[in-house]
Structures are given as C-alpha cells and as structure tokens.
Design goal:
It is built from 22 helices and 16 strands. By secondary structure, the chain is of the alpha/beta class. It has three domains: about 160 residues, Glutamine Phosphoribosylpyrophosphate, subunit 1, domain 1, CATH 3.60.20; about 210 residues, Rossmann fold (3-Layer(aba) Sandwich), CATH 3.40.50; about 60 residues, no CATH class. Helix 12 packs parallel to helix 14 and helix 20 packs antiparallel against helix 21. The two termini are about 40 Å apart. About 0% of the residues have low confidence.
C-alpha cells in the first residue's frame, strides 16, 4: 500500500497557520514565563523535522496553557491537545484516507457513519459523555486529554504501510510523599495559585475578565486572587430563578471584593422560548463533538450577556473549573477508611458516581461496564488505598473533567468569546501531584486556604460565616443519611414528586421546564436525573 491521502479541516476560524504552513495553532501556551499566541511563537519549542514520538511528547509536555496544534511536513503529521483536551481534535481513517479535524460532524460525514455505536450511546445515556478515544459514532475517534497523534506518511524500511499511533504525554497521577511539611505546602499552594492567576492576567492583557461567580469556593478564589493582584477590569455574574441561594452568595462575594455584579434571571417561559429555537439545536450539535452532552445551565445567561452587550466583545470568561476536583473532593471515602480495597470496589465507586444519570440494576450495571471502566482506567488491579484514590481521580480527570466539565467552555465560544481556566494551569496541577492523600480528603485543606485568602483580601473573618451555597446544614445532612438507606424505587419516586411539590426557586428544574411535566415525572420515577433527561433528549435531537 502506498501513501494515504491526509485530509485536514479546521472549521473554527480561531486557528492560525505559520508563514511556512508547517504549524497550525489554536489557543495559547506558556513556557518559561512567555505567552505563545502565534504558530511562529511555538515553532521553536517543537522538535526538529522527522522527530519521533518521544521528542514530541517531551516538547508538548513542557507547554502550559490551553491549546491544540497540528504540525505537518513531507514525512509526518503530528496533532496534539493540551492536558485537559480543552480544544478537541477528532480523527478517523479509511483504506485510502486519514482524516483530522476539530469538527466531529465533518469526519462522521466523510467516513459515512450513520448509526451510533450502541455501547457508546448507552454509556452517554448513563454518563453524559463517551469514554476513552471513542465517540457516539464508531469510526469517529478523539484525542484524549494529554494525548498526541503521530501519522507517518512514508512506508518504513521494514515495509510497514503509512500508519498512525497515539501517545499519552501526560496523566493526572499522584506521588504520595513519604514525609511533608504542611507549612511549606501551604506556601507553595499560594505561590502556584497566584502564578496561575498571573498567567491569566498576562493572557488577558487588560481585557475584561468575566467570572461566572457561583456560591462556591473555586470562582471565589479566582476573583480574590485577581483582586489581590490589582486587576480591575472585572465583571461577575450568576443566573437562575429569582431568590436562589447561590445568587445571594455570589452577590455578597462580589460586593465584598468590589467587583461589578450582574444577575440573569431564569424563568420557565424564558427557558422554553430560548430552548425551542434552531439556535439552541445548532449549539448542541456543534458543542457535543459527538462526545459530550453540551452544557445547558449557563447557555441562556451567556446569550443574554452577549445580546445586551453587558460583557465586552473581546472579554474572557474565566470559570472556576475545577478546583474542587483537583483538591480531592471526588475521592471516595473508601480511600480514607481501614476497610480492604479491591478492584471491584473501585469499579463500583466509579459507576456509582459517574454512570448515574439513569438508574438500573446495580449488579447488571457492574457486569456490563466493569471491563470498559478498567480499560479506561488502565489498571487490572488496585492493592491499596493510595492506588484506589489515584486511579479513581485519573479516570475522573480524563473522562468527566475533560469531556464534560471543561467542554462546557464551548458555550462561550458559541457566542464568540474567549476563555481561560486558571485552576487547570499545568503548574497548579503539578503541585497537586505531590499533596498527600490526607490533605485532600473532602478538599478541606484547600477550602481552608480559600477561606483565608478571601478573608485577608476583604479584611474580615466574614468568610467563616458566609460559607458555601452548597452547604446543607445539619438537617440536610440528616435527610441525606436517611435517604441513602431507602430502596432505589422509593428514592426515584421522591425525585419525581419533587418536580411538582418543591418550590422551583430552590431547584434547577427549569432545565426541563420545556418538557411536559408528566414526561419529566415518568422519567424521574424510572431513575433519570434532570441531566439524564437532557441526555436522552439530546440523543433524540441527533436523529432530527
């Protein structure tokens, strides 16, 4: 077999190509304190022509920031995404062609995929995304977080046909220290967090930074550190039904920090009228990459902020993804208990947390998904609590965080805006690689840090009483502990009743307010969460 035709298509206009046509770049990277915005800036950091995969892995791993790049010459094509897959790339091949694009739909059309992969479809229905390199369509593949692809154009001296291979240059894994000084770690945390925000400031270059300021701690940390470093061109916003708890916390944090604040009110009629539009359907199909359930929660808010020109046209949206995760909030309690740990327990915890948008028989779910979960986790067995925590987090990082949480930045792009994710800064991530498991339990250590820097910035200990909008108090905790022991069918029925009985100002039921109440109640009684209902609806949209 001779050379394959290589077909590359960049649908997004934000890609730029070097003068010599060798490198195409989207996004920006940092190295040695310098921001690299143009392909010509990044070219000197890349290996020489014809270099092997090891050289490329070393070069790409040294880059901080949020980017995707493609390098081509007469011998090879190399494509890479950053540690978080923040700018996705998709690929496929046929007997005569190799396809690469930022547009999964174009590749699907080129290879002629018409039917979804049934396993991927069922997984999407349970998780809201497709794991590994798969997508909803069997011949459309994706580069995973921290991955690059090398396609050798020429036939090798051993007679091998032109071929490609993917390589993981980064994985979110920990190295448990034998001993540590908590005071030194605390200072290092502050240094790394501050440096990440400093890089954001350099990237912003004076542009307006727009913070989706929730009632939680991650966006509060970003806002605090921006104020501490003297950045003034800021706007905070939140959204939801009138009177929701999160907006009250958000407003108070913005006021104490002196940041202008805007609230976008959601109502059922507003949601229905905006949802039932070609614009929304276009957004969902484009943003999914045939991999992820597109982010719906702040779609209307960003739409309103843009249409009413409340935000600058060249602003940067900076959400708090995902300080809570990186600090340890997702690690199951099993990792901190003395009970024996085994691989089955790992799989069950991943299924319990991530394959939960629709319920079913737990034993059948375990048997159906165990092998796939372990394959994505790249393990055959875990033998201790540290391995258990590490593997759980690695799976979460490359699947939910990269494909669902980080992919939510597509909503900013859809309305023409830029974005940055300082809590996924590479140096900040590297710091957490070496934080001991004991300091990551329920992210308490990280929360203490956020509370302290916020209190110092506002000159008060008010943070101790303000807390977090997601705090549910003693009564809420007691209710959850009782709910945990109820039969699954009873819990599902209670969820369905909640749709009708609970005041909508304290829920996010507006997400499905465009659907008939009877349908929502039926699906919830069958174990679907609200996001699970949206996942089902999206799969139906695909066939429209």
């Amino acid at each position: 077999m001779g050379m394959k035709n290589i077909k590359v298509r960049f649908a997004d206009r934000r890609w730029s190509q070097s003068h010599d046509g060798a490198v195409t770049l989207r996004g920006a990277a940092f190295t040695d304190g310098a921001v690299l915005r143009r392909p010509e800036d990044i070219q000197p950091m890349l290996p020489a022509k014809g270099s092997g995969a090891d050289g490329w892995m070393k070069s790409i791993s040294n880059l901080n920031g949020f980017f995707a790049l493609v390098s081509q010459d007469d011998r090879q094509l190399v494509a890479a995404v950053d540690r978080m897959r923040s700018i996705p790339l998709f690929y496929s091949e046929s007997p005569d062609n190799f396809f690469l694009s930022d547009d999964a739909e174009w590749i699907r059309s080129e290879v002629g995929d018409r039917m979804m992969d049934p396993i991927a479809r069922d997984e999407f229905r349970l998780t809201g995304y497709v794991t590994g390199s798969d997508t909803l369509y069997p011949h459309v593949k994706q580069l995973q977080a921290g991955e690059l692809l090398v396609f050798d154009r020429m036939q090798s001296s051993h007679g091998e046909s032109p071929h490609f291979k993917t390589h993981r240059y980064y994985r979110f894994v920990h190295h448990e220290p034998h001993d540590f000084d908590e005071r030194v770690l605390w200072q290092s945390l502050d240094t790394k967090a501050s440096a990440a925000v400093k890089r954001l400031i350099e990237y912003a270059g004076g542009r307006q930074i727009v913070i989706p300021l929730s009632g939680g701690y991650d966006s509060r940390l970003i806002a605090t550190l921006l104020c501490r470093q003297g950045y003034r061109n800021l706007l905070a916003f939140t959204y939801g039904v009138k009177g929701n708890k999160e907006s009250a916390y958000s407003r108070e944090v913005a006021q104490t920090l002196g940041i202008p604040w805007h609230f976008v009110e959601y109502g059922e009629e507003q949601w229905r009228s905006a949802w039932d539009t070609d614009e929304r359907r276009e957004y969902q199909k484009w943003a999914s990459g045939w991999t992820s359930l597109p982010h719906a929660q702040d779609w209307i808010a960003v739409r309103v902020l843009t249409q009413k020109r409340i935000v600058d046209s060249n602003c940067i949206f900076v959400p708090g993804h995902s300080g809570d995760f990186i600090a340890g909030s997702h690690i199951p309690d099993d990792a901190f208990q003395g009970k024996p740990i085994d691989t089955d327990r790992l799989v069950k915890r991943i299924l319990d947390r991530h394959y939960a948008l629709a319920q079913g028989n737990a034993e059948q779910k375990f048997l159906a998904w165990k092998d796939r979960v372990l394959s994505r986790a790249e393990v055959h067995a875990v033998s201790n609590h540290i391995e258990f925590a590490d593997t759980f987090e690695k799976w979460d990082w490359q699947e939910r965080q990269a494909k669902y949480i980080v992919n939510s930045v597509r909503v900013y792009e859809f309305f023409g805006h830029d974005w940055w994710l300082p809590l996924w800064d590479a140096e900040f991530m590297d710091f957490w690689h070496n934080v001991p498991l004991s300091l990551r339990r329920k992210r308490h250590w990280y929360l203490d840090y956020v509370k302290q820097v916020y209190a110092v910035q506002i000159g008060s200990d008010k943070e101790q009483s303000l807390g977090n909008s997601s705090d549910i108090g003693v009564i809420g905790t007691l209710g959850l502990s009782i709910l945990k022991w109820l039969p699954r069918a009873t819990k599902d029925s209670l969820k369905a009743m909640r749709h009708v009985m609970v005041q909508k100002r304290v829920t996010n039921i507006y997400l499905v307010s465009h659907l008939p109440t009877s349908k929502v109640m039926l699906l919830q009684s069958r174990g679907h969460s609200l996001i699970g209902i949206l996942a089902d609806e999206f799969l139906g949209l695909v066939h429209e």
